[in-house]
Specification:
- It is a single chain.
- With 210 residues, this protein is mainly β.
- The protein contains two helices and nine strands; from the N terminus they run ββαββββαβββ.
- The chain has a nine-stranded antiparallel sheet with strand order 1-2-3-4-5-6-7-8-9.
- A hairpin with a 7-residue loop joins β8 and β9.
- The two termini are 26 Å apart.
Amino acid sequence: MLFTTFNVTYAFNRSFFKGGTILGIMGPSSLAGDFQGWFHDKVTDDPVFEEWKYQVPNQPVVNLNFTYAYDFIPDQKWIDIYGVLDARLGNLYIDATPTLGLRFGKFNKLSQSVGTDTSLLSNSSIIELFFQSTISSSVSFFNGTAQGSLFQRNFEYAVDSLNMLHTIITLNTYFSANRFSFGIEHYFTFGQVLSNERHVYARVIFKYKL
């Protein structure tokens, strides 16, 4: 999938609201499979994944995303408990996800932290270095990556029955200073597409604020 995002964030004393749009294309025309195949072949010298032949057909993607986050104990300095409600609506995802989060260490306000992807709003010189863990329970009504088109159900490899309720646990470590942000995120998913599916993966993020 090849896409771009547009987001607007409204920050308050102990909460924030974010609304945004994903615009892109999904399918072979996104060149995602070609890029991954080239990277594995030329850079890492790994086997090229054959599973790309099962990817969804070409289609434009338009998705609306909404997030509301609330800090339950904003006056605490080294530990924080917060809640988040995410909702997505479009031909990529239709779902709603409540999340409970815990973080401890040295961190900025919830609305200005790398851990909630709001560090762009921070004008603070505070160095962040903290551990963050979340648990989410998502209600999913549509997943375009597994079911193909929202309107034309002719994807040959579409899942027969999408699991509507799944759980995600994350264990993350973040660091930010001045314009730089860095994070290591671990995801543990349970039943995200199929009810008996378990998947564990990690990703590294690096951001520079202009």
